Each structure stands twice: as structure tokens, then as C-alpha cells.
What does this fold into?
Amino acid sequence: MKKIMFMVAACAAMVACNNGKTTANNGGADSSAQDSTAAAGDSAVYEGLTPAADVAGIKYRVALAKDSSNGFSVSEAYMKSASEADTVYNYNGKYQVIEKDVKGKKNTYYQFELGKGNKTNFLVVNDSTLRLVNDEFEEPATNTKDMNYDLKLK
It folds into this structure.
């Protein structure tokens, strides 16, 4: 329960911090059209809707360069409903690959800096799934159909 509350609090904190990266959703414009890091053929794109405290969810779109540059483009859309975004934040940069032992298991994580001092971590579950984890690299206590923290390869 503490982990769920931590994730809810972290999501609420991200909503409260604009980090100067706000872009309004222009009449339901597709945020995927804003990916300027790489063309679809040059990147791996993951998408998913994660739970959030004060909105219907946070829709993530993560594009990772398939080369050694470790370039990324992340779009966070805070959703009013399942199909309508309220606010969209876009970030670009270089991600870090972190290998860490958690609970006796060696895992690989991608860490993105989404705004100054705001680092977001994703566990590489397999070749087609990334899972949002907390700042201590712990997975959510609940990862079910209703509380899903996974992004799937598109």
C-alpha cells in the first residue's frame, strides 16, 4: 500500500511541477507527431497509460534511438479522459542504462531526465515491455489491468 501511495504522490508531484515544458493539446492533436528525435524506422517506440492521482491517467510515449547515441524523446500526456489529453509535456535528451540488483535479481533500467532534477526510471521487463518504477527502482506493488504501469513496444 505504501508503494502505491508513493507512486500516486510521485505522479501528483509531477503534475504540480511544470518544469517549463508545457504544451497545450491543440484540439486533440496526436502527440506522436511531435517526436523529433528520430523517425519511426530509427527508433523503438513504447506507449502506455499509467495510473495517476488527479487525472484519468498519464499516457507515455517513449522513443529510443536504435543507435549508440542513447537519444530519447518522451511525451507525457495528462489525460482528462481515456481519449482526451489535458496537458502534454515533451522531453528530449540522452537516457542512462542502469544495471542494478534489486531483491537479488539483476535488472536493466532506463533512466530519463524529464525536466531539471526529475529522473524517471523504467525497468526493461523484456524486448517489448518497459515498466515504470520508483526512484529506488522498485516495481509497483500492484500491476493489474486496472493499475498497469507497463509501456508496450509499438
Summary: The first strand starts at residue 22 and ends at 24.
